[in-house]
Amino acid sequence: MPEHITIKDIARILNISISTVSRALRDAYDVNPETRERVLQLARELDYKPNFNAAGLAGGGTRNIGIILPFITNYYFSMVITGIQEMAYAKGYNIVLYVTNDSPERELDVVKNLNAQHLDGILASVCSDSAANGYFERIISEGTPVVFFDRVLGGVDASKVVQDDYNGAFEAVEHLIQQGFTRIAHIAGPENLDFTKNRLAGYLDALGKYNIPVNSEWIIHSGFSQAHGEADLMRLFELAERPDAVFAVNDRKAIGVMQALKARNVVIGRDFGVIGFTNDPMSTIISPTLSTVAEPAYEVGKLSCELLLQHIVRKSNFQSREIVLPGVLFPRESTQRSQR
């Protein structure tokens, strides 16, 4: 056998066409399962290594996937990238990373220039004030598949992988109520993001279930940082009627709330409840520990990449899908009223 095994060698041995071998190795939908298994088995036996450049030229693809996301230092997004990498590399794809730093101007610049890049598909989590709907729609209409994850754009017909924001928020607020908190504020994310809307809806419906009136002054939309959480708590404490608990859109904002409460000598848990959303490692390090709803970040990354690869292989034959993954409530000290 030659030193470097090619798909031509596999096709000759199995007496099938080169195009069939190529489709089987790409896990294409139109290959007989028995034929696919024969191809994969022989490829393993011969230690076949794909030539990505040749594969890209032959198939009109590059084996590159673009990832657009707001941050890489954020725990949630670092876990998402880990999930994406595992799936992409296992299928012979490389990833190209574009970080917007949560800037809509930077995001627009990236998206507008993506046509000059050689990408088979795009995974995207948009920035807080994204205005890129039209550009993503153009990219999709031109034949490049896009899958959104976590921060998705409403109104764009594309596949999405998200966590169950509504039920996670509902459980978080219900937990606060069951601990005896009744004046619950919500420090939310930017209003235009779908997951902000879904978590707000969960918050409102949990209050409604227990006949707790909604105070619109206790709903604050801002960014996602710890500094935003501190500033939001300061606004709430300037009100004539203060809340006795906060549901934060993410853990970083919740930690900002806790820092601001400590500066005011408020006993967290006993006198004021705080719950977040993410299960950032900081939630178990800070004192008191932070109650939160865990997001399945790794699974979001892995499934979004898997979904994108299905779009790439099947192209127009694969319809848009939405995958919603459940979160898990982790009650900790920041919502325990019984602590001394």
Q: Number of DSSP helices?
A: 13
Strand order within the widest beta sheet:
2-1-3-4-5-11
Helicity range of the residues? 40-55%
On the 0 to 100 scale, the average pLDDT is 88
Which term fits the overall shape? elongated
Low-pLDDT runs of 5+ residues are 52-58
What is the quaternary state of this protein?
single chain
Beta-strand share of residues: 5-15%
- Which value, in Å, is the CA radius of gyration? 24 Å
**Which structural class best describes the helix and strand composition?**
alpha/beta
Along the chain, the helix and strand elements come as HHHHEHEHEHEEHEHEHEHEHEHEE
How would you sum up the major sheet?
A: 6 strands, parallel
Total E-strand runs: 12
Distance between the termini: 75 Å
Model description:
- It is a single chain.
- The chain has 340 residues and is α/β, with parallel strands linked by helices.
- It contains 13 helices and twelve strands.
- The protein has helices at residues 7-14, 18-25, 33-45, 52-59, 75-90, 104-112, 133-141, 165-178, 194-209, 226-237, 251-263, 282-285, 297-314, and strands spanning 64-69, 94-99, 121-124, 146-149, 159-163, 184-188, 219-221, 245-248, 273-275, 292-294, 322-325, 328-330.
Describe the structure using short key phrases.
340 residues; alpha/beta; six-stranded parallel beta sheet; four-stranded parallel beta sheet; 44% helix; elongated
Q: TL;DR of this structure?
A:
By secondary structure, the protein is of the alpha/beta class. It has helices spanning 7-14, 18-25, 33-45, 52-59, 75-90, 104-112, 133-141, 165-178, 194-209, 226-237, 251-263, 282-285, 297-314; strands spanning 64-69, 94-99, 121-124, 146-149, 159-163, 184-188, 219-221, 245-248, 273-275, 292-294, 322-325, 328-330.
